[in-house]
Amino acid sequence: MKIVLAVLYATLALAACTPTTRTVGYGSGLEPIPGSITYGGQPRTKLTKAPVGSIVPHHFFDRYGYRVYETYIIEPDRSLRLTSRRIDYDVFDH
Asked: For 18-65, how does the pLDDT look when each residue is reduced to its tens digit (9 = 90+)?
């Protein structure tokens, strides 16, 4: 009986372990959130020196204090396309 309880507790402990980040990936129709580079429209300045297809990383804290990592790609018209977002929910990091 003790072994069954030990296995049950171990299973519950492992089930309680959840990742502290959430990644929203490619092609999912990401919308900018407050703090995103493209929130409220494209930036006023054009990225003229960066090659088309370049990756632009960006990180910021959202309104809840979680760290947000975003990745953009420079399009042929020099606009930025949001391709991925990762939110770090680990409260011990900040």
From this structure: 444 444 554 457 899 999 999 999 888 888 888 999 999 999 999 998
Per-domain residue ranges for the chain? 20-93
**What distance in Å separates the CA atoms of residue 33 and residue 23, rounded to the nearest whole number?**
14
Q: What pLDDT, on a 0 to 100 scale, did the predictor assign at position 57?
A: 96
With beta carbons less than 8 A apart as the criterion, state whether 60 and 68 touch.
Answer: yes
Q: Does residue 88 contact residue 20 with C-beta atoms inside 8 Å?
A: yes
Q: In a 10 Å sphere around its CB, with 0-12 CB exposed, 13-18 middle and 19+ buried, how is residue 12 labelled? A: exposed
Q: How many residues does the chain have?
A: 94
